[in-house]
């Protein structure tokens, strides 16, 4: 099982919004889909940045239970479900599905997954699906159902308590091992920035709340 330095994962997550800033490991390929950002690095490391356009927010972040502009009830059989029967936030699942389809075309199975924000939501779905470890920063909640699921602890989720995004959507739940750190000072509206998450990783390691490396659980 591949293990990854949290410090290096934070650097990559911050650099993911402009892939030319990624020097090592090198970017081998990037997803060509117009609304989905994903990079495949050396060693088949999958890197997923968050939303970088209004269209991302409308198409993926704001679709917890919407398909085709139709609101669906939780009892509706047409809700998006995983093979485990898990009911997912359908926008996050749709985003993860685009990434998974791209990886199938590339004939690649990721060895490790790193994501921030929307990318961290997709990382939770994909680490469970592939059974590989991952790290998600500032992660929203993608799962509507509760209870243990196979590979449900593969993703390490690092959140800040002054960031509102990890508490959304309210009726959903995280998938993985969650560490919510209380920063000092608080950054409130700027807390979601990946640069502030890199700061909190260092603090979490000094206080023993976070490991130096992650290889899944």
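-> sequence recovered:
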């Amino acid at each position: 099982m591949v293990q990854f330095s949290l410090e290096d994962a934070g650097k990559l997550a911050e650099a993911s919004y402009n892939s030319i800033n990624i020097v090592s490991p090198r970017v081998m390929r990037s997803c060509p889909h117009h609304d989905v950002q994903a990079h495949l690095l050396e060693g088949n490391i999958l890197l997923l940045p968050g939303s970088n356009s209004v269209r991302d927010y409308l198409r993926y972040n704001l679709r917890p239970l919407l398909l085709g502009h139709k609101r669906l009830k939780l009892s509706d059989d047409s809700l998006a479900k995983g093979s485990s029967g898990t009911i997912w936030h359908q926008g996050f699942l749709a985003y993860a599905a685009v990434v998974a389809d791209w990886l199938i075309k590339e004939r690649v199975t990721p060895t490790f997954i790193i994501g921030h924000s929307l990318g961290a939501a997709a990382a939770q779905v994909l680490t469970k699906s592939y059974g590989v470890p991952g790290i998600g920063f500032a992660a929203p909640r993608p799962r509507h159902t509760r209870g243990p699921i196979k590979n449900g602890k593969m993703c390490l989720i690092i959140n800040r308590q002054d960031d509102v995004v990890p508490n959304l959507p309210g009726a959903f739940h995280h998938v993985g091992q969650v560490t919510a750190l209380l920063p000092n000072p608080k950054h409130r509206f700027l807390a979601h920035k990946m640069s502030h998450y890199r700061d909190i990783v260092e603090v979490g390691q000094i206080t023993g709340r976070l490991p130096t490396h992650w290889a899944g659980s």
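Residues 81 and 87 are 5 Å apart (CA to CA).
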